[in-house]
UniProtKB/TrEMBL annotation:
Gene Ontology annotations of biological process type: proteasome-mediated ubiquitin-dependent protein catabolic process
Limits of the PCI domain: 70-254
Signal peptide annotation: none
InterPro entries, alphabetized: 26S_Psome_Rpn12 (IPR006746), CSN8_PSD8_EIF3K (IPR033464), PCI_dom (IPR000717)
Nucleotide-binding is among the record's keywords: no
Transmembrane intervals: none
Protein name: PCI domain-containing protein
Key words of the record: Proteasome
Family the entry assigns: Belongs to the proteasome subunit S14 family.
A cellular component term, taken from the record's GO annotations: proteasome regulatory particle, lid subcomplex
Amino acid sequence: MADNEVKQLISHLDTLKPSTLTQAPQLLSRAKLALLKLHALVPGAQTSPQHLLLAATVLEYGALISIRLKDTDAFTRYYQQLQPFYSLPAERWNSRVGKPSNQSKVTGLYLLLLLSVGDYAGFHTVLEGLEMSAGKEQMEKDQFIQYPVRLEQALMEGSYDKVWGETKGERVPSEEFGVFSEVLITTIRSEIASCSERAYPSLPISNAKNLLFLDSEGAVVQFAQSRGWVAKDGRIYFPQQEEEMLAAEKDVMSSSGMVIENTLGYARKLETIV
């Protein structure tokens, strides 16, 4: 009975459209409850291959739907719940029933999540584990794994234009990867913006568009407003830089005044001595 309930819920999850994705958490909760009745939510020694596959399939749906709902915390939980299934030896899976079909995709998405939050140590730890379990040659053929690997290499080189190119069009391996790609570009854009604030007093809007990987000058103006910058006469002005320059000028003026005052005082003393 519980088997059929899980299968029906999986079928329902499979037919969800973007407009009905909000139904997914409730469906997933029901599916996990049914799996608990089957003692399959966590793989045990007595869990059958059929129940293993049902459980892994539900958890993979949970992971992928969490990405579409932009719930990275839920995605991370599903990824962690899937690890005991992904680490099972091959003999636990029946060749007739099959194995989880989205392991590479879920793992690749987790790698991309680690990149988007700047966890490079975690990224390489997962990558090393994959090399040990699947082999380097197999990894190099896997589009879902190679996508975050290419992005990480470009980030290490500081080639943000390559990162930008990888997040566009056909180079993104699936819809779910596009969500994290947007997060990654937003992070990079913020880093470039912070560097620009420190390096320049102002920039032409046309230059800022290319520098910040924005699609239009209007998008530059919106981004500038969100950062507290001033858009005027075709340029972006960085108030923080202006304030720092004014503060520096005040410090120079103050120091100069002290030097002048000390010099005059010294001169008056000399006159008294003479």
